[in-house]
Amino acid sequence: MTIAEAHTEFRQAGDRLDSSSIPDMLVEQVDYFLNEASNRFVKTRYSGNNEFKMGFEEIQKRTEDLKTLVFTEFPAITTVTTETNVFKANLSSLFTDEALTTPSTKEYWFYIRGRARVVKSGCTSTYVSIMLYQHDDLDDVMLDPFKRPIIDEVVGYFESGNLYIITSSGTTIDKVKLSYIKKPITVKYGTQYPTPSADVSFDLPEHTHKEIIQLAVIIALENIEAKRLETAMALKQTIE
């Protein structure tokens, strides 16, 4: 569905719920509600904070909802000089290739899976699992012989918008494979990224487009406090 078509359907759906409000909206306002709905759709499908309480990969529908936003790329890695055996994966500096020669144009949003390539003298470098922990658990984890970093498993945590990785003594990390959900593109009527056109579409799967438009109408009615908001909220429960 193009954004031009999405605008038309948005106005038609809104007119059925509240004919006094939606049709008079400016193009820029419709763009805003479509983008807000797209962002909310991704967040609720990832987290499970939706009508059916099912998050990403919990059921096949959720996997299919976000499949076009899932990528595996490689963040830039630096050594943390103020800590021992700690490395930072920069989530705002992603590359499409392992050699880190081609910068990614996508924006990281939500973590799915991480693997780090561990380097140790005399051993073959290999990718191992990153086990994530909360900050208040890290001290206990580092003392626990069953949880602390070992050669085939490292410890990770998030801080300042980046992924930090702790290794065992004598090992370093030179690469990280990051599987994540990217931020959906911002759509705008009459433009297509990167070439001007009226044929731009959401970068989510086709089957989600009508659900996003329905959600956009509900958000619009919430913002203008329309009289038919109660009807719109009942409609929301049908958005799978």
Question: Would you summarize the structure shown here?
Answer:
Helices cover 30% and strands 27% of the residues. It is of the alpha+beta class and 240 residues long. The mean pLDDT is 84.
Q: Give the end-to-end Cα distance, rounded to a whole number of Å.
A: 18 Å
Sequence stretches where pLDDT stays below 50 over 5 or more residues:
none
Quick one: biggest sheet? 7 strands, mixed, barrel
Look at the helices and sheets and give the structural class.
alpha+beta
The radius of gyration over CA amounts to 22 Å
> Strand-and-helix sequence, N→C?
HHHEEEEHEEEHH
* Largest sheet: spatial strand order: 1-2-6-5-4-3-7
- Please estimate the helix content: 25-40%
The counted number of beta strands is: 7
Mean pLDDT: 84
Beta percentage is 25-35%
Shape: elongated
Number of helices: 6
Give an overview of the whole structure.
- The longest helix is centred in the first third of the chain and has 21 residues, at 27-47.
- It is elongated and about 70 Å long.
- 30% of the residues lie in helices and 27% in strands.
- α1 crosses α5 (209-224), α2 (27-47) packs across α5 and α5 (209-224) runs antiparallel to α6 (229-236).
- It has 240 residues and is α+β, with helices and mostly antiparallel strands.
- It has helices at residues 3-17, 27-47, 60-65, 138-143, 209-224, 229-236, and strands at residues 70-79, 86-95, 108-120, 126-132, 153-159, 162-166, 171-182.
- A hairpin with a 2-residue loop joins β5 and β6.
- It starts with a helix and ends with a helix.
- A 7-stranded mixed β-barrel has the order 1-2-6-5-4-3-7.
- It has 6 helices and 7 strands.
